[in-house]
Automatic annotation (TrEMBL):
This is DUF1453 domain-containing protein. The keyword Transmembrane helix applies. It comes from the Bacteria. The keyword Coiled coil does not apply. It comes from Novosphingobium soli.
Length: 172
């Protein structure tokens, strides 16, 4: 590793993120089934990971405030991202199923969130009276952001899909 963590390993998260975004871009136009009974799994896993992180390093008073603020911001971002997803119903009657396609705008939205996080959070982490304490606040806010985004995104997708299936079956 180079000086200050600037070696090749410092760019690994960017390479992984770029590979995932490229893969999602090329699969964007292909609709895939949205499995409503399985939408609870990702929020459960993220909640468990956040709880484990908070158990290992409990936040202070301001840490809880940062966590709540991050959750509120993440909830808003998750709701917006879910509204950008393209949903449609294929089939009729009991054979109806909801299909989901990633929209280009939703993909750009994720890229903007990643870029904003990379641009603003490192700057915030080194400011303040003690860099380690402000770094913990940033970590708490990031945990809240992730939790809010995943949970509310799945809730909104579930609500939209359920309403679409009910209206589709009613129209048939």
């Amino acid at each position: 590793m180079g000086e200050g963590g600037r070696g090749l390993g410092a760019y690994l998260p960017f390479a992984v993120f770029a590979a995932i975004m490229a893969w999602r871009y090329f699969r964007m136009e292909k609709a895939r089934p949205l499995r409503l009974p399985l939408l609870w799994i990702a929020p459960l896993l993220v909640t468990a990971a956040v709880c484990l992180a908070l158990y290992g390093l409990p936040p202070s008073g301001f840490g809880w405030l940062a966590l709540a603020a991050g959750f509120a911001l993440g909830a808003g971002l998750g709701i917006q991202r879910s509204r950008l997803m393209r949903l449609h119903v294929e089939g009729a009657g009991n054979e109806a199923r909801v299909m989901i396609r990633q929209s280009p705008l939703a993909l750009l939205f994720i890229l903007a969130i990643f870029a904003a996080r990379r641009l603003f959070l490192p700057e915030m982490a080194v400011q303040g009276p003690h860099p380690a304490a402000s770094g913990l606040l940033v970590m708490d806010a990031t945990l809240g952001l992730m939790l809010g985004m995943v949970v509310l995104s799945r809730v909104v997708l579930w609500q939209r899909a359920r309403a679409m299936v009910a209206a589709h079956m009613f129209d048939a």
